[in-house]
Amino acid sequence: MTGPNQPQPDRANPTPVPPTPAPPKPADRRGRWVAILTGALSILIGLVYLVLITVLDARGPMQPPPPEALGLTAAPAAPAQAQPQAQSETQAPAPGQRQSLG
């Protein structure tokens, strides 16, 4: 039964019932799984990116490197260590020490 403002069904030309879809072919099922897998992978990459950015951002503001790292100024000399013996000129300097040119 229809209400007063609804159109009356056309009994001479009934609406055709859509056909039942055929079961998917094996190639269609494989394509569907590939689409699901790539979608899940892209979501996983996005989540890893967000976590990485959150961790890196939580470290605080970035500080510029010291000028010594850029080679703009000489690095400060290491403090001289007291040596009980005087070095002879034939002896090579210890690693990390500069040889005087005097």
What is the strand and helix layout of this fold?
Elements: H1 26-57, H2 67-70
Task: Please describe what this structure looks like.
The chain has 102 residues and is mainly α. It has a domain of 34 residues. The chain is built from 2 helices and no strands. The protein is rod-shaped and about 115 Å long. The model has no long low-confidence stretch (mean pLDDT 77).
Gap between N and C termini, in Å? 116 Å
Based on CA atoms alone, the radius of gyration comes out at 40 Å
What is the ordering of alpha helices and beta strands? HH
Strand content: under 5%
Q: Key features?
A:
single chain, mainly alpha, 2 helices, 102 residues, rod-shaped
Write a compact overview of the structure shown.
The protein is built from two helices and no strands.
